[in-house]
Amino acid sequence: MLMERKRPTRFKPRYVPRRKVCPFCTDKSQTIDFKSPSKLLRYISNRAKIEPRRKIGTCAKHQHALALAIKRARYLALLPYVPSHVQRTAAVGASD
User: Fold this and answer.
1) Distance CA 80, CA 94 (A)
2) Which CATH number does the domain housing residue 48 bear?
3) What is the pLDDT of residue 29?
4) If the chain, 96 residues long, is cut into consecutive pieces of 10 residues, what is the mean pLDDT of each piece?
5) What is the pTM assigned to this prediction?
6) Does residue 60 lie within any of the structural domains?
7) How many distinct structural domains can be found in the chain?
């Protein structure tokens, strides 16, 4: 009589990442505009870099539009290029 070997059971993963949903696709009224730096500040890191899609959860279409709006706001001096200005001034017109 042959003994049957039991296969080891697989463990459930402890962390199952939840799929992020694009905030601009879910809320149709929210628009990406370079003239509102207070909204754009949420998508910039403390090192003044544009946050990646995997962290924010935006779709490719809105990530491209977001990056373009941040670059335009930087060019018009509404948002800073360097991290030292992020901590000091936050953004021009961020009080709106």
Assistant:
1) 12
2) 4.10.640.10
3) 86
4) 67 76 90 92 92 92 96 94 71 56
5) 0.71
6) yes
7) 1
